[in-house]
Specification:
heterotrimer; A alpha/beta (about 425); B alpha/beta (about 775); C alpha+beta (about 170); B: about 775 residues; alpha/beta; Ubiquitin-like (UB roll); Barwin-like endoglucanases; 6-stranded mixed barrel; 34 strands; C: about 45% helix; about 10% strand; binds flavin mononucleotide; binds iron/sulfur cluster; binds FE2/S2 (inorganic) cluster
Chain lengths: ~425, ~775, ~170
């Protein structure tokens, strides 16, 4: 059985206090990191093979090494705790149960990238998490972990929590920087990349909250030891996997990276509720293409899931059962995306409502067969032509529906009604 | 310079050019909405997709966001790229109303053009269209948000380019809205450009709403007559009414935009009370009779009193050709009393400034945008030369430092350093700022006004610019102040002519588009002096006091109604062309407004009713009537040929209306002496009270646009502005009604106070019906007005 | 110390004077904003506080925020209308946010809406006549493990069934 790392203080049921956190080896990672050079810290993270937990899986060590550290500063490190991807509920737990872990991770990350200031960008609805973090920041500050000349190392860093006001696009990294600057959260064009011109047009590194929470463990264990926690050759570390939907024990589980989907759903999630069958799942949030029963044995790892035409995303699986109409599921998804589109670019702003409308017509049994062409043409054109990754994420599941469930979609049109049991 | 291949054609473009522009250079114009040369690329509309086949970037990409690089091979007609462009149009059309037949943009709408170009003809989207409630944005700009395609150009122009802060982007997703916090007039002096930058009909020119289709308008390349900058524009007239004015690009002058004074200032041309009749002794007559009368009066005066008895005033607001022909007439008459302005002190300062500009120091309006240090002395850009403020803002956005030395609380649409200083102190403060800043600047420019600064400040700016290798930029009063000043040289000013009239030596005054009764600062003196004349001959298109007093009156053509040349403040001569033939607008002859004797029965004219002609034609007629040999005044070509005989005007030979203009240098030979005593105004006397200055405003003070009903809407109530501490000292409060007096003259107006106004001075705008000019340069007392 | 100062907004500061930001509080906020390098960065926090004080971000509240932050009011409005949790129109004393994203949809959130609409007698987006509740949908609350879920004010309710709605409304109605 795996020793829990990220979740080891979750059993308290309240935000672990500084005392509780330190009792479990808390801030040892920071102490160790401060005796290393920033390059050594980055090397350890590269060795660990850690890939970003925000959804795209970019190698974290590589990202850090791209940060422009020659620039005279100030530099910033941002923690992305916006967590608004539907189906995802992992960062919430990290912040509500063990806020110090995120803070320690941020401090080490800031040290490695020579950041003067760290921000934790948290979604509005996570009021409790924000309170937990702020309390932890005060504790850590009084204990000398935050502020100037941390633990006598000469390294100084401040940390703030920014509580947002609700919009999914704020999670997109450049939009997040705009949001933090008090601007509308439209994404920015790249280049320039945040590594050279990010928040306040200064070099900025940004990682997901879970990514950052892993850092203290990587430093404490050493990069390669951490890496070997993975479930298979080539994977790295542990991962928070979530299961929700029509399963017996929905929840969040820390498992070796690469744990098969079947094990996550059936063993940890307790399998389907009685009377229901597995129909499909979104493997890692509403923007990840659907997986069907035939994909159950995929290892939940970035590369493996990509190989079968989907994405691991956030690793929080939403399970759809046999009573779920796949078209209605996509309508639900598109409702979210059309509502949340930041309105900057045409494909997303005006294309997604088009997709949404066709899906509604299909579901209502009023669509004609040729509207499927319009549907596909919309999706195939929106996907590569939008400004940021939002719109591709919005249509990708629909594209997967057309690949995996075309019969069911066509049945709606032929029968002029929904063929699913309601 | 990167080289790339687009559709099989090689093109080389300057570093940093985007691929969309590179294709344009080859004549391949790919549709785009959000990209705009002035505002750059933001990649929002996603319309300009092309396929990148070889090179550092691959696949279908929006070309505005990609910088041209060596080795790129690009296909614009690739099927994927075409599909992307077609779908963008289809998406935009999902919400667009089908109101083209009643939309003012119809016929000049990019969405209309591209929809047809892209072949989108069948509606596949079956959902409802999104609808908005539009806002009331004042009387200049109409908003119809349902037509919005969210290209963000309006926001980027208004906020980013023009620095306005009362307009922005609201809401999100496909409900994104562009507007104000609440209904109300757009505050920026550049708001009218929204009508130009908006590619569809969301923002349109409200002043001619529903009254013309673009293809009905008679247009021609033209130049703005409303200040000395000479911004390029395109006036459009329908049925002899000047209706719609749009900005025209000139990369050396205004770039792409114009100010609202230029855009909405055209109402003077179609005023109901515009003088359109030939008048002799208060009686309506025809052109020949009027010429005959003028000839008789002039020759009688010369016969009796000699050529010195005829005086001529040209004008800084009329064309170079008109003024030149006036001068020719004076030469032929051997009349030495000729000047080209009726405001002597400003005239002298402008002539001086113009003579101080040289090829090395002068900067174009656009050059200001590329300066890294701007020091402005005694100028109020937004009010005196609005587009200058916009160029200064662009410089500031690129990091330029801007210092404004001026006694007024100058307002600019960006952050700058204001140094309040009285006109007397300008030179000294300028030296101070230069000392501190000059060393670390590569491309500095000194801007100098010619309204409130004295000759010493004007000289000091030129001297500093010469010594330090700075650019020099004077703002002048009118569209052709430069041309007028060159023609005037060291000749007499209008003050001298008034003395001549007062002494009985001058018996006839020919006023070419000039209004001594309305513009000479001491109106009473002018009125007394002009009364002593035997005859007053006036040519104008404005119903001025002088026009009304004329013994012989010729209705003249205005700028959009004739060909001509203005020389702007830089010395850039720019040609403008006739857009339409002037005459009584058909709309003011239409039903309900038709004079009863005309309808019914209807009469049909073979001539344009109320037709006016360019003043140079009348002047030529008079010369011929006087028996002068003047074949070379027959046409504009021959007039220009005689102009070019003057070496200074030689560059005009190469001029054509759509060029960037030709640069004229005044030369120092004719420079009016610095010690020329101003015949009026001049250095203020010492003594008690606040120093009073009449000043310009964007709306309401400039001579021509003051006759436009549209711009008058934005003119404020008369006011006097003083420093808050001075006000407190006088026991006065902001907003109070006060009396401003000096000797016998007094003004009644509202008091405004500002902490950033220089102490010891008072300012009031030269608004119509408010004789601020009368007190200019004097010391005044300000007291609470007793009710 | 600066850390604490920077976090002042993360603590909720109940307003002192009835429904408005008190003069004292405004003074305090103005000083805080003046100490910032970029006052705009405080806008979201200021809007949230003003919203708490006024119940929603009324025109007056937006103008007050602009004045405190020394920015043109359009900048406040641009943000206020961008974010989903800043209300430019009046809402009830408590807002019921029902998650309408995918996991809650699977678990029957549509039934919750039906129940809420019936019990409150309002449609989505409306406020009850007594001003107690406004009913709104919200994006995934990050509570999928207890789907279907909803927030009443800031309180999270999970594993909901239509039957539980009545009891919760009873408890939350104040
Ligand atoms: C529309 C959109 C929303 C996103 N939302 C989040 C989010 O809520 N949390 C997050 O960590 N990453 C989010 N991301 C991904 C971030 O842009 C970014 O890739 C991530 O924060 C990088 O962190 P990582 O390298 O640790 O994964 C989002 C991306 C997009 C396009
Ligand atoms: S795809 Fe376009 S509209 Fe959608 S969120 Fe990104 S930038 Fe905004
Ligand atoms: S012009 Fe290129 S994306 Fe709009």
């Amino acid at each position: 059985m795996l020793q829990p790392l990220l979740t080891k203080n979750f059993h308290y049921g309240h935000p672990a206090t500084l005392e509780e956190y330190e009792a479990s080896g808390g801030y040892d990672g920071l102490r160790a990191a401060l005796t290393m050079t920033p390059d050594e810290v980055i090397k350890a993270v590269i060795d660990s093979g850690l890939r970003g937990r925000g959804g795209a899986g970019f190698p974290t060590g590589k990202k850090w090494s791209l940060t422009d550290r020659k620039n005279p500063g100030p530099r910033y490190f941002l923690v992305n705790a916006d967590e608004m991807e539907p189906g995802t509920f992992k960062d919430r737990f990290l912040m509500e149960r063990d806020p110090h872990q995120v803070i320690e991770g941020l401090l080490i990350s800031g040290y490695a990238t020579d950041a003067a200031k760290g921000y934790i960008f948290i979604r509005c609805e996570y009021a409790e998490a924000a309170r937990a973090l702020n309390r932890a920041i005060e504790e850590a500050g009084s204990a000398g972990f935050i502020g100037s000349n941390i633990l006598g190392s000469g390294f100084s860093m401040e940390i703030s929590v920014h509580r947002s006001a609700g919009r999914y696009e704020c999670g997109e990294e450049t939009a997040l920087m705009n949001a933090l600057e008090g601007k509308r959260a439209n994404p920015r064009s790249k280049p320039p990349y945040p590594a050279s011109e990010g928040f306040r047009m200064r070099p900025t590194t940004i990682n997901n909250a879970e990514t950052v929470a892993n850092i203290p463990h990587i430093i404490k264990m050493g990069g390669s030891a951490w890496k070997s926690l993975a479930a298979y050759e080539g994977g790295a570390g542990t991962k928070l996997y979530g299961v929700s939907g029509r399963v017996k024990k929905p929840g969040l589980f820390e498992l070796p990276t690469g744990t098969p989907l079947r094990e996550i759903i059936e063993t940890h999630g307790g399998g389907m509720r009685d009377g229901y069958f597995f129909k499909a799942c979104l493997p890692g949030g509403a923007s990840t293409p659907l997986l069907a029963p035939e994909h159950m044995d995929v290892r939940m790892d970035f590369d493996a899931v990509s190989k079968i035409g989907s994405r691991m995303g956030t690793g929080c699986v939403t399970v759809l059962d046999n009573t779920c109409c796949i078209v209605r599921a996509m309508i639900n998804n598109l409702l979210f995306f059309t509502r949340e589109s930041c309105g900057w670019c045409t494909p997303c702003r005006d294309g997604l409502p088009f997709v949404y409308n066709i899906l509604q017509r299909i579901e209502a049994g009023v669509a004609e067969m040729d509207e499927l062409d319009a549907l596909e043409e919309n999706c195939e054109t929106i996907y590569p032509n939008s400004f940021c990754a939002f719109a591709p994420g919005a249509v990708d599941p629909v594209r997967s529906m057309m690949r995996l469930f075309r019969d069911e979609v066509e049945a709606h049109i032929k029968l002029k009604r929904c063929p699913c049991p309601s | 310079m990167p080289k790339l291949i687009i559709d099989g054609l090689e093109v080389e473009v300057p570093e940093g050019t985007n691929v969309l522009e590179a294709a344009k250079k080859l004549g391949i114009v790919i549709p785009h909405f959000c990209y705009h040369s002035a505002m750059g690329a933001v990649g929002a509309c996603r319309l300009c997709a092309m396929k990148f086949v070889e090179g550092p970037v691959k696949g279908v990409q929006v070309s505005c966001m990609i910088k041209a690089q060596d080795g790129m091979v690009v296909e614009t007609a690739d099927p994927d790229a075409m599909r992307a462009r077609r779908m963008v149009i289809e998406w935009l059309m999902t919400n667009h109303p089908h109101d083209c037949p009643v939309c003012d943009e119809g016929g000049m709408c990019l969405l209309q053009d591209y929809t047809i170009a892209g072949g989108h003809g069948r509606r596949r989207y079956k959902g409802k269209k999104r609808t908005y409630l539009s806002q009331y944005l004042g009387e200049f700009i109409e908003q119809e948000m349902n037509r919005c395609i969210q290209c963000y150009r309006c926001h980027r122009f208004y906020r980013d380019y023009a620095g306005g802060d009362d307009f922005g982007t609201k809401k999100i997703a496909n409900r994104t809205f562009f507007g104000r916090f609440k209904d109300g007039w757009l505050e920026s002096e550049f708001a009218g450009n929204l009508a130009d930058v908006c590619p569809t009909g969301v923002f349109t020119d409200k002043t001619c709403h529903f009254r013309a289709r673009p293809w009905e308008l008679e247009t021609a390349p033209s130049v703005c007559p409303h200040c000395s900058l000479g911004c390029n524009l395109t006036p459009g007239a329908k049925l002899r009414e000047l209706m719609l004015i749009k900005a025209r690009e000139n990369p050396k002058v205004n770039g792409w935009f114009i100010c609202d004074r230029g855009r909405f200032g055209g109402g003077f041309a179609s005023r109901g009370d515009r003088p359109r009749k030939f008048i002799v002794n208060r009686q309506e007559t025809n052109r020949d009779e009027a010429v005959g009368a003028a000839v008789k009066l002039i020759s009688a005066a010369i016969a009796r009193y000699g050529p010195g008895s005829v005086a001529l005033t040209g004008s800084p607001r009329t064309s170079l050709e008109n003024n030149h022909v006036l001068k020719k007439l004076a030469d032929m008459l051997k009349a030495e009393n000729i000047c080209f302005s009726t405001e002597p002190f400003r005239d002298m300062k402008e002539r001086r400034a113009v003579s101080l500009l040289n090829a090395g120091s002068r900067r174009s309006l656009r050059d200001v945008e590329f300066s890294d240090l701007i020091i402005s002395a005694g100028a109020d850009p937004v009010n005196e030369a609005p587009m200058l403020a916009l160029m200064m803002r662009q410089a500031a956005r690129k990091g330029a430092r801007v210092f404004v030395i001026d006694p007024r609380p100058v307002r600019l649409p960006f952050a700058f350093t204001h140094i309040p200083a009285l006109p007397d102190e300008l030179a000294e403060k300028l030296a101070g700022v230069l000392n501190e800043t000059r060393n670390d600047s590569k491309n500095p420019v000194i801007i100098c006004g010619t309204d409130i600064p004295g000759i010493d400040a004007i000289d000091a700016c030129a001297a500093a610019a010469g010594r330090l290798n700075c650019g020099l930029f004077y703002t002048l009063s009118s569209a052709n102040s430069f041309g007028a000043a060159v023609l005037a040289g060291s000749g007499p000013d209008f003050g001298a002519m008034l003395s001549g009239m007062e002494g009985g030596n001058i018996r006839v005054l020919i006023a070419l588009e000039s209004d001594p009764l309305g513009r000479y600062p001491d109106k009473e003196r002018a009125a007394r002096a002009l009364k002593k004349l035997d005859s007053l001959i006036v040519m104008d298109y404005l119903p001025t006091d002088t026009a009304k007093a004329a013994d012989v009156f010729f209705p003249a053509a205005a700028y959009a109604e004739m060909d001509g040349i203005f020389i702007n403040n830089e010395g850039r001569a720019q040609g403008f062309s006739r857009a339409y033939i002037p005459g009584i607008p058909v709309n003011s002859m239409g039903p309900g407004r038709t004079p009863p004797e005309l309808h019914p029965p209807r009469e049909f004219f073979s001539e344009v009713p109320g037709r006016s002609f360019p003043a140079w034609e009348y002047l030529g007629d008079i010369a011929r009537g006087l028996g002068m040999e003047c074949n070379n005044l027959e046409s504009l070509e021959t007039i220009r040929a005689t102009l070019s005989e003057d070496r200074r005007f030689a560059p005009l030979a190469a001029l054509h209306p759509e060029s960037e203009g030709a640069l004229i240098t005044a030369g120092q030979a004719d420079r009016p002496k610095a010690q020329t005593p101003p015949s009026a105004g001049g250095k203020p006397d010492t003594g008690e009270g606040l120093l009073f200055y009449a000043v310009e405003l964007t709306f309401g003070t400039e001579e021509i646009s003051a006759y436009s009903g549209k711009t008058r809407l934005r003119a404020p109530e008369p006011y006097v502005l003083i420093n808050s501490a001075d006000a407190a000292g006088l026991g006065l409060k902001d907003g109070e009604r006060v009396k401003v007096s000096s000797g016998k003259s007094a003004l009644s107006c509202v008091l405004k106070t500002s902490a950033s106004c220089a102490k010891g001075a008072a300012f009031a705008p030269r608004l119509t019906g408010f004789d601020a000019a009368a007190l200019s340069g004097k010391r005044v007392n300000i007291t609470k007005e007793s009710v | 110390m600066s850390i604490i100062a920077n976090n002042i907004f993360s603590q909720r500061m109940p307003s002192k004077q009835g429904n408005m930001l008190s003069d004292n509080r405004i003074k305090e906020l103005r000083e805080y904003v003046a100490s910032l390098e970029r006052p705009e960065e405080a806008l979201v926090d200021l809007m949230r506080e003003a919203q708490e004080a006024y119940g929603y971000l009324s025109d007056e509240a937006a103008e007050k925020v602009a004045e405190i932050a020394q920015v043109p009011v359009i900048k406040v409005d641009e943000l206020a209308t961008f974010y989903s949790l800043i209300f430019r129109r009046p809402v009830g004393r408590k807002v019921i946010f029902v998650c309408d994203s995918i996991s809650c949809w699977v678990m029957g959130m549509e039934n919750l809406f039906e129940r809420l609409k019936a019990r409150l007698g309002i449609d989505i987006g409306e406020t009850t006549a007594d001003g107690a509740f406004t009913l709104l949908p919200i994006c995934c609350l990050g509570a999928c493990h207890v789907a279907p879920a909803m927030l009443v004010g800031e309180k999270l309710y999970g594993n909901l069934t239509p039957e539980m709605i009545d009891e919760i409304l009873e408890k939350e109605r104040v």
